[in-house]
C-alpha cells in the first residue's frame, strides 16, 4: 500500500480540481436564488475558476520546476482549500466570484506539478500503472462533477459543493508531505512577464465577451476590455519572441498542424462542455428537475466517453491520431446539432441522443489529442506543447461559457421582447439567470399560461442557438483536422515524452 501512497496523494488533488470545473453547473439555480445573482454573475462563477486555471497553468509549471514540485503542489492544495472555504461561506455573488478566482490559482499550482510528481515517484511498469490510474481519475471527474454537485446541492446545500473539498484537501496535504519526493530543475528563468501579459490578455478578453453580452458591443467598458486584451496580447508576443526562456515558443505556431490542434483543444471544451451550464438552468428552473436528476441527465455523455476511451484506447495506440481527433470532433458537432431538437414542448429525454453521440466524440478525440500535438513538434518542446494543450482546453471552457452565454441570453431577450409582457428586459434577465419559477409564480393568473408558453419558447430558442454554434464550430474544426493535420512519422519514432495531463472539464 505504501508504494501507491504518492499516487493516492496526487489523485486526491487532481480529482478535486477537475471536479470543481463542472460541479457548479447543477448548483447554479440554487446559487442564483440564494445570492440574488444575475446571469453575468453566474457566468463568472464558472469562468472565474476556469480562467485563472488556464491563464496561470504555464507559469505555475515553470515555478514548480524551478522551486520544487512538491512544494508547489502543497501550496496549491492549501490555497485551493482556503478558497473553497471562502466559496462555501460567500455572502454575495461578488465574494463567491473572487473566491473562485483564487481557487483557480491553487488549482493551477496543483495541476502543473502532478505529472512531474508521478514521473519522479515511479519507474518501469509501476509508472505506466500510475499514469493509467491517474488518467482514469481524470476521466471519472468529468462524470462525477454534475452528479456529485446534484447530490450535495439537493441533499445539503449548494455551499456543500465547496466545503466538501476541505477534508479531502487536509488528507492530501498530510499525505503529500509524507510520501511525495521533492524535485526541481533550477535551469533557466521563470518568464514572469510572459505570464503576466498572457494572464492579462485572456482575462480582459473574457471580461469583454461577457460585458458585450450584458451591456452591448459598443459599450465603453466592453471596448476598453478588448483594447486592453489586444495590447496585452501584443506585449505577450513581443516578450515571448525576445525571451531566452519563453512560456510558449511562438515558432510552434508556424506549423499548421499545431495551430489546428490548438484550435481543436479550445473548441472541444467549448462545444462539448460549455452548453451544460445553460442546459442545467433549463432543466431545473423550467422543467422542474431537482439537482440530482439534472446531474443524471448529462451523465450519458460521460459514460459514452469513458466507454469509448476504455475499449478503443489499446486499438488506437501507435496509430495516427489525426483520424480519431478529426472524427471525434465531427461526432461532437453532430451530437450538438442533434440537441437542437429541443422545442418548447420538449422534456429532458430529447437531449439523450445528442449527449451519447457527443460523448462518443469526446471519448475518441480526447485521449489522443495530446499525442497528436506532440507528433507535430520537436521532441525538446514536448513538455511545452503538452502544457499548451491543457491551457488551451481550459481557455476553451472559459471562452465558451462567455460566448455561449451571450448567445443564450441574447436569444432569450429577443424572444421575450417579441411577446406581450410588461418589462420584457426584467423578465428575460430573470429567465436567463434561473428565475423562471419565481417569474411564473409572481405572474397574474390570467396571463400565467401565456407567460409559461413564452418562457418555454425562449429557453428552447436560446438552447437551440447555443447548440447550433457548438455544432457548426466542432464540424468545421473536425474537417480542418482531417484536411490539415499531417502524420509525422519521424516524430512518431522518437522516444515517447513523459505523459501529459488532459483536463476533462
Give the SSE layout.
Elements: H1 5-22, H2 28-35, H3 39-67, H4 69-89, H5 93-121, H6 124-155, H7 160-163, H8 165-179, H9 192-215, H10 220-242, H11 256-273, H12 276-286, H13 291-297, H14 299-316, H15 322-338, H16 352-374, H17 382-417, H18 424-432, H19 436-442, H20 445-484, H21 489-492
Can you summarize this structure?
The protein is 78% helix and 0% strand. With 505 residues, the protein is mainly alpha-helical. Mean pLDDT is 83; it is low at 489-504.
Task: Give your account of this protein's structure.
Helix content is 78%, strand content 0%. With 505 residues, it is mostly helical. Helix 6 packs antiparallel against helix 14 and helix 11 packs antiparallel against helix 20. The longest helix is centred in the C-terminal third of the chain and has 40 residues, at 445-484. It starts with a helix and ends in a 13-residue tail after the last helix. The model is unreliable at 489-504 (pLDDT under 50).
Amino acid at each position: 500500500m505504501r508504494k501507491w501512497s504518492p499516487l493516492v496523494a496526487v489523485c486526491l488533488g487532481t480529482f478535486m480540481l477537475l471536479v470543481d470545473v463542472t460541479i457548479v453547473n447543477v448548483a447554479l439555480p440554487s446559487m442564483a436564488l440564494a445570492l440574488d445573482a444575475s446571469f453575468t454573475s453566474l457566468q463568472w462563477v464558472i469562468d472565474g475558476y476556469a480562467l485563472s486555471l488556464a491563464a496561470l497553468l504555464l507559469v505555475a509549471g515553470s515555478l514548480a520546476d524551478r522551486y520544487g514540485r512538491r512544494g508547489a503542489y502543497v501550496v496549491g492544495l492549501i490555497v485551493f482549500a482556503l478558497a473553497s472555504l471562502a466559496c462555501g461561506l460567500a455572502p454575495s455573488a461578488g465574494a463567491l466570484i473572487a473566491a473562485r478566482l483564487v481557487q483557480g490559482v491553487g488549482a493551477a499550482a496543483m495541476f502543473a506539478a502532478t505529472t512531474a510528481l508521478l514521473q519522479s515517484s515511479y519507474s518501469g511498469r509501476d509508472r505506466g500503472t500510475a499514469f493509467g490510474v491517474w488518467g482514469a481519475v481524470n476521466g471519472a471527474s468529468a462524470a462525477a462533477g454534475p452528479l456529485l454537485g446534484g447530490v450535495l446541492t439537493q441533499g445539503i446545500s449548494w455551499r456543500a459543493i465547496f466545503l466538501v473539498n476541505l477534508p479531502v484537501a487536509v488528507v492530501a496535504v498530510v499525505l503529500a508531505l509524507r510520501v511525495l519526493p521533492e524535485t526541481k530543475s533550477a535551469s533557466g528563468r521563470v518568464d514572469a512577464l510572459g505570464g503576466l501579459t498572457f494572464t492579462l490578455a485572456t482575462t480582459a478578453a473574457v471580461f469583454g465577451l461577457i460585458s458585450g453580452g450584458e451591456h452591448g458591443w459598443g459599450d465603453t467598458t466592453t471596448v476598453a476590455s478588448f483594447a486592453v486584451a489586444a495590447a496585452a496580447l501584443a506585449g505577450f508576443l513581443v516578450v515571448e519572441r525576445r525571451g531566452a526562456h519563453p512560456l510558449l515558443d511562438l515558432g510552434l505556431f508556424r506549423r499548421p498542424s499545431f495551430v489546428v490542434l490548438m484550435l481543436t483543444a479550445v473548441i472541444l471544451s467549448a462545444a462539448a462542455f460549455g452548453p451544460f451550464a445553460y442546459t442545467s438552468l433549463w432543466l431545473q428552473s423550467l422543467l422542474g428537475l431537482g439537482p440530482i436528476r439534472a446531474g443524471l441527465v448529462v451523465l450519458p455523455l460521460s459514460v459514452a466517453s469513458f466507454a469509448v476511451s476504455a475499449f478503443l484506447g489499446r486499438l488506437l495506440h501507435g496509430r495516427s491520431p489525426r483520424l480519431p481527433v478529426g472524427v471525434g470532433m465531427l461526432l461532437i458537432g453532430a451530437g450538438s446539432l442533434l440537441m437542437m431538437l429541443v422545442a418548447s414542448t420538449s422534456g429532458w429525454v430529447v437531449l439523450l441522443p445528442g449527449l451519447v453521440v457527443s460523448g462518443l466524440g469526446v471519448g475518441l478525440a480526447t485521449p489522443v489529442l495530446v499525442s497528436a500535438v506532440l507528433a507535430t513538434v520537436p521532441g525538446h518542446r514536448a513538455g511545452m506543447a503538452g502544457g499548451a494543450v491543457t491551457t488551451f482546453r481550459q481557455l476553451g471552457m472559459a471562452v465558451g461559457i462567455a460566448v455561449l452565454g451571450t448567445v443564450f441570453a441574447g436569444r432569450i431577450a429577443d424572444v421575450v421582447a417579441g411577446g406581450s409582457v410588461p418589462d420584457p428586459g426584467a423578465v428575460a434577465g430573470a429567465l436567463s439567470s434561473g428565475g423562471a419559477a419565481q417569474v411564473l409564480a409572481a405572474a397574474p393568473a390570467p396571463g400565467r399560461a401565456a407567460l409559461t408558453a413564452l418562457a418555454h419558447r425562449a429557453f428552447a430558442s436560446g438552447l437551440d442557438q447555443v447548440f447550433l454554434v457548438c455544432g457548426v464550430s466542432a464540424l468545421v474544426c473536425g474537417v480542418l483536422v482531417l484536411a490539415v493535420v499531417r502524420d509525422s512519422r519521424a516524430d512518431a519514432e522518437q522516444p515517447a515524452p513523459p505523459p501529459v495531463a488532459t483536463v476533462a472539464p
